[in-house]
Amino acid sequence: MAFTLTSPAFLNDGTIPAKYTCDGNRKLSPPLIISDVPEVAKSLVLIMDDPDIPEIVKQKIGLSAYDHWTLFNIPPETREIPEGGTVGTPGATTEGELRYTGPCPPPEHEPSEHRYIFKLYALIAPLDLPAGAKKEQVLDALAPLLIAETELVGRYSRK
Questions:
Q1: Distance between CA atoms of 31 and 60, rounded to whole angstroms?
Q2: 51 in helix, strand or coil?
Q3: Percent of the chain scored above 70 by pLDDT?
Q4: What is the pLDDT of residues 58-87, one digit of tens each?
Q5: Distance CA 147, CA 41 (A)
Q6: CB 118 within 8 A of CB 152
């Protein structure tokens, strides 16, 4: 069995329902299902980002992706993050929020449809980071502890 991340709200590479975006409730996260976590895992990390932000925004904020959600030190026995739920320790989004921030691609820039990549990592140990750590800090800390990873891609364009 393969380590997987799925959602009952949308298929991999499918459309994220508007209710989880700025066209609905930008603070409402979609439900996520975690399957087949490696037995040796002691911690999980979830990062959701948008690599399709416009070049002008990338230059303005100095990032290659817009960070929408970071959770770390998720217990390895976690099998579901319910709709609107959270688990583990929150990291900071690009906006500095310590919570999910749903998709909101600017309609005046191309591409109008963006990919939102939910990446799930299994680690051999928890991370020694405080709440509010930025995605880059989390990725640096998890690198030597990584044993498996998987992803779920959702797409969204403004109505």
A1: 32
A2: coil
A3: 100
A4: 888 788 899 999 999 999 999 999 999 999
A5: 8
A6: yes
